Amino acid sequence: MFEDLQPAPADKILALIGLYRADPRPGKVDLGVGVYKDRDGKTPVMRAVREAEKRLLQSRDTMTYLGLAGDTGFNTAMSGLVFGPAAEFSRIRAAQAPGGSGALRLVAELLKRTRSDATIWLSDPTWPNHMPVMRAAGLEIREYSYFDAASGAVRFADMMSALATAKSGDVVLLHGCCHNPTGANLDTAQWAEIADLVIERGLLPFVDIAYQGFGEGLDADATGLRLLAEKVPEMVVASSCSKNFAVYRDRVGAAMILAKDSAQADVAMSQMLSAARAMYSMPPDHGAAAVRIVLEDATLRADWEAELEEMRLRMLRLRVQFAEALRRQSNSDRFDFVASHRGMFSRLGLSEAQVERLRAEHGVYMVGDSRINVAGLPEDGMDAPAKAIVSVLD
Asked: What does the subunit comment say (predicted)?
């Protein structure tokens, strides 16, 4: 049965992890893997999450199924976190999903059921898993221009020109904040223009918000999404808790629907849960329950927000320090955009050959498209990776 199969292409980021681990050089630097790391290179368990897990273990008296939607308290809390207190919650439905990727796939399955002939528009570039997830759901894909590698800025005019050609009923996937892989974000005025365009063209906004709290702050990072929710008749959202709660391995996410009214929201939710039943049936419970406990307890939530803010500010400091080191080493402003980007990632605009030289000659690891995870930068040694980067420039 399997004799005609060919090996699947290796995941480039997972392969990079293996190469880094096998590298014996003491000064190697890992800027590739997309997880938050502290100054010691560890991905911490957040204080509030650890306390919530203790409470969960002490209070849990059953391990039975929760249902297709998962933890309903988690869903309510996440809807409030994402849409904000002023949202029309009668029009919103949410289902717990296995991580942000699970939420994306769940929404994609819903879109295939309701808009089978729709095209989904993805930014160029976008997170590498967006395309395979949408293809797996059978959706047609097109791309819109987004990032200017030379300046490190958003190509907003080109983006709007591309989306102006989308047909009514098409879906546009937008990064809610902290664009992955570039770190270049839309501003509030641009979000407002996009809202006007999607209404004019009859498009459906699909917001992937995987880094809320890592950019400008919890509420500020949801500004664009909430602006859309105020204006558009309907939209869909995929949210992840992997980064802002650091529960990566527990796979915690939420798929959300904003419908025209409560009745349509109920129908769409029934179809989304039907899709969940066919894919994985019930979502995992532990991580989502811990997140729910944090969000529902005022003391734990305050501690979580404080630690999340510490993480955010640390990444901002690293950005500024790295941009300054690159300016010193290059004697130019070529990489100044790193300081203005937000989130864990920036894309440096290097070629794959230059990225390979960095790995082979200097032990500096990054993804082939030159995306770096700023949380992996050495706080006390910025000049070494900056010097290495400048040394491979043409």
From this structure: Homodimer.
